[in-house]
């Protein structure tokens, strides 16, 4: 018996390697953005029945494994507080170097509050550029103001 | 005698409060994006002579303090590895929840490599939205491929 | 010159001791809940002009110190990740022991998402009880659902 | 042979997924609050004979597994000191931002002491709200005063 | 102006050195156990008016410093999670080596619950012993049972 | 083949659950205090031939497992530096809050040195008390003075 | 089914021991530097089809295992932030002792920016020396300047 | 009175900024490599009388400050175990990603032992390159073999 | 197939327990000091062919396991940075309490440099003493001076 | 007024630099080993009246500072759990690499127990050696056996 979501995630990743699937193709099947679908397959988001069945079909999951895709997971995908992987570290470095800057500018524009990480979407695009193609990541989150009470 | 860049940064921030300056106005004076200028004033970037003089003028810095703005700083603006401030934590959470997703999708598009945090720019915009205005942060970095050697 | 909000917070706390003020009285003056006003005086929330002036008057703050009360602070009030103070540790223990329980029950009722800590309020009450009076803390936060994108 | 309570907890969670049980139904069977029963099933509380048998029946536990439910567990349900899961992190953030505030206000009302996390109960309710439903968590703990000795 | 309790604690310790006071004498003046009085002077407990005045007199505290003795302190007296001082480390080692043993035996006797660290007293005695005198530390805390709710 | 003492400890604990043994009964069989015997069974102390055989008989250990009981273990029974279990945390809190106090009072009585955690014994007793029964833990260790050399 | 790249890495290392291969020979087969090929075999770099097949042949990998060599790995090869192995620690010590020196001298020569760890190569050579042979490690990385934006 | 080497280092750095000195010029005056001299000025190495006097002259140090330059310092120049500064982090990343590779290749060439970080030198050079100039760092350390004893 | 040196180490330790071997006897067979041989058997040192065969014979290792004894291990034998085992902690405490003292005295005698931990030997002896036998540990390492470059 | 022992230690170290004292000379004046006297001057041991007066005379301490030398200090002289200074790190590495070995051999000789770090002495000697002089550190501690109770 599958004991937790992690085992399903590992099976999805292993099946992706052996079958040679791409996240783009998976997203197209599910009918949502590649960003959200990948996060869901990596065990960070919860799928509804239809989504879970499609993902299950693509990754050869059995009925019980598909059920796990519909359970809200314990989120957080990094093995260490400061990530060791260079690609992910660069994102961490952006927060380290520019974090206070982002904070200052959002507060200057909106006042006290935060950019939501829940009412949130993300879009990753390649920008063709003669000086070397660029990765563009658009983070979009609803501004949530603190309120007096 | 000023002992380090941090003291200059603290003076800039304190002067900003007492004079009521905005980063937008500072950026306009310097003639660069508000994101870069704010990061520089917060002690994360190095200014050239002209930029340093303008910043010095706005924040009442003396000659010696202005010199420090031209020295490459020890970067990293956060007091703890996992940031406690809610606004900055949300950015950290985005990496925690979506970090592997971003990694997967960049590799699927570009192969092995990273998004540079040096050949990098950032743009923060308000998006008017009837369901609540949104913060849009565009991170743009050159893709740097690993090469065999 | 005041260098940061922390110095203002320390002055507020020291003045409270020397003048013998209570948070309840401060809250009454400001006209908001004791929970929010205390958090603001402790450097976690941002005050508007009127609130800042009232707080400034009560704690003998000068004009420049009052300005700092209107600047969004770097939040987070604990010196260590696991708090050493017994009263605050008990709250941490509640999360440690019951955190997964709270997660399970909120998801069972609402689906995937979180209880907001921004669109949030808190109410602390004494409950008279013959077996020993109780502290009742009501945490109330808007449910924010994850959305597909 | 079952080696520890954790294995029983994992079996309970896996069975819940495969059988599609809800904590509400489990709580109703056991005849106690959903908060306490869920905590117990998640390996944080100790059940008596009757409770253990009911839980065992619902989750298909064998006799030896049921015995483990009656053993006092090593408590603490979080894998890291600062929780990575967004829902649980928000609770941690509340302590980080409002912890000193709660401390100040309880001491102002009760003097030196703590809110017990043992003589304690918790109640989680949905509040219907046109601006978005809210999660209300009531924490109730006996005040325990420090005594001179 | 005194900024926090720590400064008062430091003055107490420094005065104790320069005046050559003993904790035993201080305790006798205050009229409580040496354990509780020492903890209070070290900034871990809260004194009432009479106790604060006596302590203030012994340590040459001014009126404002005496007020701080009556404020509930942020408790926890160790600079690191694992204490480096050999005497204090031995206590930590006792918990490390015998902690689970103590847990097992208290639960075997009392069921699920804890020994209170609030409704608590401590008594330190010298035991004369021909094989070398011993330190006897008696920790006494009320048993607090977990209750279903 | 058994690989380490931990596996034997786990078998002892699991057998205790399935057979319903108590530490008190085990201690009586071995003929030593319940505190020492429990610590030994939990993998913190080393047993001699006779003790190991008795423990082995009670917990159905085979000859090889019994040999492990006679090997000096790697001691330390806690999974984290700051223990998450509430009962054990209270002991840690006692050190955090009263550690410097204990240090001051032992030094005042004995001079520079420590209370041994090796030439040490521990006694846990229930104290009947109308206000609620108490747990009394007596820690007794030989005082070891630092010597000049 | 292979669950992750780590399992393939472990098989490569175990096969290297049992077959007595050298990294030099493996590198010669693959036709690239010993530094890059070793890093790839240790699960830090991504191989193309031809490289993966050659490595697969040398280490008796099956078709599925070979596929994993072509998947971008989660990088970072050290089990702790500060490495315990003496050889690797010496490299860490070089950064600890000389890190600021390297930073100062690169900035003095190039201005603000970094030495890339992606557009990077490494060459390890033995230097024969009568006073004892030396290890020479040449790190070569493209300088990447920060740019205003 | 100067209390420690750190204060001298801070004075050196501040004087360098205000006088506009370069490490290259300082090294030329002292007559040693820029790498070693910079490390010494940054408080990591010990100077002899002649070197200390030259450095003292360049940085306006008084007699007592010059004495500190001749005292062996407590080494280690980084404020955190994992460095936050991007330039220094890249060096850390090289160890993280290639550390085991370096270990494997040195052992394959030399057997068990280490590259010394004491009998060590470092040379930093700019390599002109049409694809972008490169930073070349040559680390050279004597190989020290483990010996049986 | 054996996956790593750790598995061989665990087999050696388990076999030592089941066969009742002593390190002294193992050392005599190998013909080197008990300190070096024990370290090697515990997976910290590398054996040559003859040593590995002797160790393999004593501990019933097969041909493949013997090969692992000849592979340079990833060194470092402690599960936590601050060791929990009381015997090993005392060594750590010696460094904590006397570390700066040792540093001062070696520098006073030798100048700047270190005591090698590679060109190193260790000798552990019992000293009979009427006041209680003593453990004498002699650490002997070549002094390695820092050199200018 | 001196606030703590640390300030006295800093004054001793600064005076040693400015007056050019050696620990050897200080030890001769005090009439004890250089190891113990240095540790005491560095704030790790407690001096008696006569020793404190001699140390006070050598380092120009006033009466109040001399009093601090007679107060038992909070021990532990390292700023981080894993020391960054190379000389001290080598000692830590010895524990990391050989710690389990030392444990095994002491237990094989003495049974379960520890080498005391309190009933302890240390002797540091230069050994002239044609292959390079060596540092010999003899650690000598009374063996303390665990006893059943």
UniProtKB/TrEMBL annotation, chains A, B, C, D, E, F, G, H, I, J:
<keyword id="KW-0456">Lyase</keyword>
<dbReference type="InterPro" id="IPR008076">
    <property type="entry name" value="Cyanase"/>
</dbReference>
<dbReference type="InterPro" id="IPR010982">
    <property type="entry name" value="Lambda_DNA-bd_dom_sf"/>
</dbReference>
<dbReference type="InterPro" id="IPR048564">
    <property type="entry name" value="CYNS_N"/>
</dbReference>
<feature type="domain" description="Cyanate lyase C-terminal">
    <location>
        <begin position="77"/>
        <end position="149"/>
    </location>
</feature>
<dbReference type="Pfam" id="PF21291">
    <property type="entry name" value="CYNS_N"/>
</dbReference>
<feature type="active site">
    <location>
        <position position="116"/>
    </location>
</feature>
<dbReference type="GO" id="GO:0008824">
    <property type="term" value="F:cyanate hydratase activity"/>
</dbReference>
<dbReference type="InterPro" id="IPR036581">
    <property type="entry name" value="Cyanate_lyase_C_sf"/>
</dbReference>
<protein>
    <recommendedName>
        <fullName>Cyanate hydratase</fullName>
        <ecNumber>4.2.1.104</ecNumber>
    </recommendedName>
</protein>
<feature type="active site">
    <location>
        <position position="93"/>
    </location>
</feature>
<comment type="similarity">
    <text>Belongs to the cyanase family.</text>
</comment>
<comment type="function">
    <text>Catalyzes the reaction of cyanate with bicarbonate to produce ammonia and carbon dioxide.</text>
</comment>
<dbReference type="InterPro" id="IPR003712">
    <property type="entry name" value="Cyanate_lyase_C"/>
</dbReference>
<dbReference type="Pfam" id="PF02560">
    <property type="entry name" value="Cyanate_lyase"/>
</dbReference>
<feature type="active site">
    <location>
        <position position="90"/>
    </location>
</feature>
């Amino acid at each position: 018996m599958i004991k937790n979501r992690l085992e399903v995630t590992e099976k999805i990743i292993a099946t992706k390697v052996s079958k040679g699937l791409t996240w783009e193709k998976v997203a197209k099947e599910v009918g949502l953005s590649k960003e959200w679908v990948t996060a869901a397959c990596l065990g960070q988001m919860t799928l509804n029945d239809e989504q879970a069945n499609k993902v299950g079909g693509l990754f050869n999951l059995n009925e019980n494994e598909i059920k796990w895709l519909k359970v809200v997971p314990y989120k957080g995908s990094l093995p260490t507080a400061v990530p060791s992987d260079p690609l992910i570290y660069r994102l961490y470095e952006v927060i380290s170097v520019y974090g206070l800057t982002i904070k200052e500018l959002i507060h200057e524009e909106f006042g006290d509050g935060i950019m939501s990480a829940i009412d949130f979407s993300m879009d990753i695009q390649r920008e063709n550029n003669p000086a070397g193609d660029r990765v563009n990541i658009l983070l979009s989150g609803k501004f949530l103001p603190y309120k007096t009470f």
